[in-house]
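the two lines:
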Amino acid sequence: MAQDRTNSEEYFLPIRRLLIGILVFCLILLTIVWRIDSPRVERFRMAVIDRVVPNMEWAMAPVTATMNIIRDAQSYSRIYEQNQELRRELQQMKAWKEAALQLELKNARLLDLNNVRLDADLTYVTGVVLTDSGSSFRKSVLLNIGERDGLRDGMAAMDGIGLVGRIAGLGQETSRVLLLTDANSRLPITIQPSGQTAILFGDNSPTPLIDFLEKPELVRPGDRVVTSGDGGVFPADLLVGQLIESRDGRYHVRLAADFERLAFLRVLRGVPKEEINDQGEIIIFDETVGPDG
Amino acid sequence: MKLWGQMAERSATHIWTMRALYSTTCFAVILFHLLPLGQIGWITFSPDIILCITLAWVVRRPEYAPILLITAVALLADLLLMRVPGLWAALVVLLADRIGRQRHRMRSTGFGVEWLRVSVGIGMLFILERFALNLLFVDRPPLPASILQLLATLIFYPVVVGVSAGVFRVRKPALIETAASGRRA
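prediction for all of em together
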């Protein structure tokens, strides 16, 4: 039997070679035809796929289903891991939420401070206005806080929004606040945004007068007026009011603080640079040191 | 004579069974490639298992994988796997024929020599395919991917041989048959 097969193999060898030659030639011809007339061969290919693949559907379905089950199982095995991950992220989110709340509080506080124009370095004591001055020529109020509460002459007094005046006269338990509208009040100011400095003169009117303005053309009505801090008496950048122009072309300040209803005043306990002993000589130079050093 | 006829009949049935098995296996491999499993990474560098099966069976039992069947399977794979139709099939047919003619020399030597010869053949096949694609102005796959596929195929060949021998009982003819055939040669 083996002999027969060997003999037949030997006998058919040239034919076999011919067959293979024809086969390879046909296949290469198919390739070349595909290269020349691709759409036609591709249609043929699609026809073959169309005929074969749907018939394989029944065989593919269980395999695909099995693979999907395996994939699902893999995802189930990752559930614990994912849960841990989510827990960690939740922890981080809680931390962030806490931080956000704290920042919100801080922001609110800072906004509050902004509204009252408080220097962050300053602390303040709030006092109740006891009495008004009682005279139309003296603009001052009396507070129920005094030296006992750490007040010094020259400290700035504000209401919730703007500067009201300064401590001028100090008792143990009471203090007098000289208002900006008093005729004796002189306040170095800065006009924002131009940055012009000037002096605010109290003149017994509700709107104090601005003088010593170097370049009036740089300021406009509506500009913000803040303390400049010059002279070292007041802290800088306390809100005073808004610039307005009077009919005669002079600049005044509409004060931000509500002078009609002064009920509670905050006295800023800053660190005064200089001792102020006398109401009339607020800014004094030490004669022994002098301005030249 | 009756006994001979029975044996021949059984043998013919067996041969046709094995041919059907060859076609089915190759078809299953194509089917596996076509499974809608998404882009899994190793699929793209997958070894050409059909080529491995074909060569392994041609070396052992060429009567199980006749050249017409090889052609049909390879052409079907070309068509279904969206390759250039005919080119790879032609190369596979040429290589299968070549390996089939060399198999008498591989018979007495060990598996190492066979693997080496097959590897050289498959390497030639990949080079020829790239060359032909270049000639036809067809977009070639990137060279690293091609090389990875070639290496995967070479590494996979012993696995296919092992499975063929172990599961499908495709082994080299028994020694007595070999001796008889060798004496006549």
